[in-house]
Each structure stands twice: as C-alpha cells, then as structure tokens.
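Repro:
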Amino acid sequence: MVRPAFRHLLPFCLLLPAACGQSEGESRRFTREQTHGNSDPVLPSPDTSRAIWSVSGSGQSITFGDQGAEPFLTLTCRLRDDPPSIAIVRHVPARPGQQALFPVIGNGSISRFKVDAALVNGKWRWQGAVPAADPQLNVFAGPRTVEATLPGGGSLLLGASRIPAEFVRWCRAGGALQRAQRVEQAVEALETGN
C-alpha cells in the first residue's frame, strides 16, 4: 500500500524508465572500453612499506623504491637545462602516445604534473619535467609522507624523508653545493700535492 504522502510521486516513478527509453526492469550496461576508452589493466597500489629514498651515484637523481628492484618513482635534476629542470618518472607501464595528469599530494601542497609516455631505460614509462623553480615541486620539499596517484597506476605512498626536499633545493640552486664540494676537493688536492 502506498502512503498518501507519496501517492503523488507514483506516476513519476512509472514514467521515469519510459522517459529514458527503457522499459521497466530493463537496465543498460556499458563495457569498460565504452566508458574509459581503453582496455589497459588497472594496476594495484604498490606495497611501499619497505621502500626507501636513495641518491644515485652521480648525485643527479633520487629514487624511491625497494632495494634491488625497479624504483617506483625517480626525480632527476637536469642541470644542463636552462633554467635547470626536474624530470619526474613514475615507473609503471605506459603506451606510446599516452598522456596523463599525475596528482601528488603532501607537505601542504597539491600538485598536478603533466606526464607523457616515454622510453626510460628501454621501457615505456610515465615521464614529465618542470623547471626546478616551479612551485609545484614544493610537494616534495618537506619531511612528510606524500601520496602520488597515477590513473590506472595505483596510489603510491612515498615515505617521509628529508632527501626529496634537499634534492629539490640543491637542483634549484643549480647544483651549487656539488660545485662547492668539487672546488674544495680541487683545493685540497693542490695543497696535498695529489
């Protein structure tokens, strides 16, 4: 029995499926290809509980990942660019021609980096670059945990560390600290005769 207060809604409920071009009880289903435009698998968020930030041997890049495995994320300072820039690589499969926005949240900032499919060490990965002075990089310039989400690539929790903040500062300074260390080493070598 329909309550009197809702009796006036009954005709609308009966007409709604017909107005949408469907008969009562009929539902319309969409495939993933129809709604998303591709059939790429959705990757689960990686387990980052044992992942750490590491500085490369050259000092020009830092990686976040498990030791001995392909990193989850790489930041590379391109000192030869004018002005210096930082390249961001999210190490999940990409296909040639793909583009995406890569949101990164943390340290009081929300950034959205434009990334494209690019060949990185012989594999198609997501890569983007911004000038080192870009305020979007402030998302890495703090000691707190950062969350980076790539559509279809899962959510990546980047452990709290001072390494990314120091790296961004160093790159923004044009690698000045590294240059100062080289000058000090050259002076020491001259003084000791080595």
